[in-house]
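Hey team,

Filing this mostly as a record. A colleague (T.K.) asked me to run one chain through the structure pipeline before their review meeting, and I want the input and output archived in the tracker in case anyone asks later how it was produced. No errors, nothing strange. Just documentation.

Input sequence:
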Amino acid sequence: LIYSHPELMIDWFPVLGNHEYRGNTQAVLDYTNISRRWTMPARYYTKAFEDKGTTIRIVWIDTAPMMDKYRNDSATYPDACKQDLQKQFSWIDSVLTSAKEDWIIVAGHHPIYAETSKDDSERLDMQKRLDPILRKHKVDMYICGHIHNFQHIRRPGSDIDYIVNSAGSLARKVKPTEGTVFCNPEPGFSVVSADKKELTLRMIDKKGNILHTISRKK
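Output structure:
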């Protein structure tokens, strides 16, 4: 009931993933003009939220064009090579430079670090191109999907919590990798909450059980 359940009559802020890049990515953006709930002003965009004096900025990014695997396969991913990669990286750097909110989260489809059978080149390209910008600005969390399971990873030399959110349908097996704090193969979702002193992400399975909690304190 993800499109019709009363509890989900809320704003949706999508990002493009590899499946969108298999077709017409512009159609995903254009749906903003059709649905009141669908808010996607650009391929990458940012929004700050404020509640009871606490501020949080989310930066949604377009990760498929960051990887050579997609850029070099124009037959399967026709829109990937058309994207100006340096323009997006400059924009991300600029947004994070000026961000003054209490908490900063960057969200994209593909992981920077994760245990997966997918091509190693995907993560290596992300580690080389995106991760240095996130580390430079000390963002709190990088949240992604793509792998279809829950993963929480911390890496030496970085204070970022690297989070893989599970899928709402098909979930995949997972095992620990370098830096794994927690991993779980259940389908589900994550909920983020924050106040001035603490940012919390809870990984929740399809039955509503809290599987893992990530807490960052000021």
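Quick notes for T.K.: The radius of gyration is 17 Å. The chain has a mean pLDDT of 96.
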